Amino acid sequence: MDLELTAEHRTIRDMVRDFAAREIAPRAAHYDRTREFPHDNVRKCAELNLMGVMVPEQFGGSGLDTISYALIIEELSRACASTGVIVSVNNSLFCHPVERFGTEDQKQRFLIPHAKGEKIGCFCLSEPAAGSDAGNQQTTAVRRGDEYILNGTKNFITNGVAADTAIVFAATDKSKRHHGISALIVEKGAPGFRLGKDEVKLGITCSGSVEMVFEDCRVPATSLLGAEGLGFKIAMNTLDGGRIGIAAQAVGIARACLEEATRYSKQRKAFGKTISDFQAIQFMLADMATEVDAARLLTHRAAWTKDQGGRFSLEAAQAKLFSSEVAMRSAVKAVQIFGGYGYMNDYPVERYFRDAKITEIYEGTSEIQRLVIATTLLKD
Q: Which end of the chain has fewer CB atoms within 10 angstroms, the N or the C?
């Protein structure tokens, strides 16, 4: 692995950094406050071909590598963490599984419009009793002729408010436990499919998280992704890639904390000097800078490993674990450096603090990441 970015990577990073600073960052506080889904942000991201970054060009995507994707999510998340995760979910949790496990017809019908950003996708795995225990799916899908009848409730579904299409995991044979889980592609407007509770969250407030309810929802059998019983494998493979996106999101949040805290420390005066002259502040900034760099390197290593085509579960888990905890530690330090102002929404570090926490929870909690890492270490 070459630690230096290629000229193409730098060009992509700089282009998205400039775009995010001009178009995304100025509206971040507004969307955080109003909780409106940022349709205009998504439209602008689609215009830059950011909704299907790793999807081959023949299916409407940009055909870029995973390091490019990590750079893009970091830059978007540095400006607005909600926009970062919206783009990440469409890329990693919808486009990827359809590209890898879908039929040619499914790719033509679903992958192309979602990779182009003409439509938005979501990923429905979590349930009231199936969070970290993803194999405990209570949602069921029963085959009846040329249809599946879907019943159950999914919660915390990012992009759900605006999603045109969902990948829904359900038990097709409960006797087989996780080997009896299947994945279905379900379109908005399917009979028996409706949105439930609109989730009010601590952070990433405008990412459109909702409950999704399926009541005798009729889904064409042709919408089965992969094969019956393959759903758990699809979910775990998808989450491995998704964790790289969340690691990159966490790096973006942590970098925002570092940059804002550094800028403020050079302006704020106390005891006759700027607070950046005090060693206590310098030490916090030094720790933040070191951890941000380390988190980014772990994230890029995971992205590089994925691009090599082999297993990358360990690298993705390490990147997601470390980066998310760095985001939280950086947010705590940034608020501390801002002092009382850091607790007020006049400054963005208060938002970063709220946004950072979720990176330790979704797409696998820190505890689950530690289990993945430990299992890999101990299996030999």
A: C
Q: In this structure, which CATH number among 1.10.10.10, 3.40.50.12780, 3.20.20.80, 1.10.540.10 belongs to the domain 7-120?
A: 1.10.540.10
> Which helix (H) or strand (E) segment is 216 a member of?
strand 210-220
The pLDDT tens digits for 233-244 are 999 999 999 999
Annotated catalytic residue within 23, 325, 350, 363 = 363
Contacts of 196 (CB under 8 A, 6+ apart): 153, 155, 210, 211, 212, 213
Q: Exposed, middle or buried by CB within 10 Å (0-12, 13-18, 19+), for 3?
A: exposed
Active site residue 4: no
185 pairs with which residues across the strands?
A: 167
Which residues make Cβ contacts (< 8 Å) with residue 27, sequence separation at least 6? Answer: 38, 40, 41, 80
Identify residue 220 by its one-letter amino acid code: P
C-alpha 302/C-alpha 240 separation (Å) is 10
- pLDDT level of residue 129 (50, 70, 90 thresholds): confident
pTM across the whole model:
0.97
